[in-house]
Amino acid sequence: MSLETAETAAKLTSDAQARHDEMIEAAAKVLGERTTEAEAAASEIRSAATDELDRARAEARSIVESAETDAATTRDEARSQGREMVEEARELRRQMLHDIAERPGGSTE
User: Could you tell me where the DSSP H helices lie in the chain?
Assistant: First the structure.
């Protein structure tokens, strides 16, 4: 190989290495930028998901509280109706016993 060929080869190798280094540096820069963008997007997604989860939990708490209130109201109404029915039955029984007692020859036994 001649000196000129060796110098040309060395120059080409040096230019290729420099271009390689530039490309690696540019790729690293792009990778860094894209990584930063991806991390920001992921952070926004996590934040939105957290907000949505918080809203869902609050709504679930509200639904449970409402259901508990409705259940307590229904229970209280049922108890009241039950007491009224028992009182009506007692009154009917008293009236029937009274009617039987007032009949001629009636007995309350």
Answer: 3-102
Q: How far apart are CA 50 and CA 36, in angstroms?
A: 21
Q: What is the mean pLDDT of each run of 10 residues along the chain (109 residues)?
A: 87 95 96 97 97 98 98 97 97 94 70
pTM of the model as a whole = 0.54
Token reading at 69: 């209130």
Between CA 69 and CA 95 the distance in angstroms is: 39
Contact status, residue 84 vs residue 78, Cβ threshold 8 Å: no
Q: Which two tokens stand for residue 80?
A: 């009241």
Give the whole-angstrom CA distance, residue 54 versus residue 12: 62
For the record, the structure tokens of 30 come out as 């792009």
Q: Which two tokens stand for residue 29?
A: 């820069």
Distance CA 92, CA 99 (A): 10
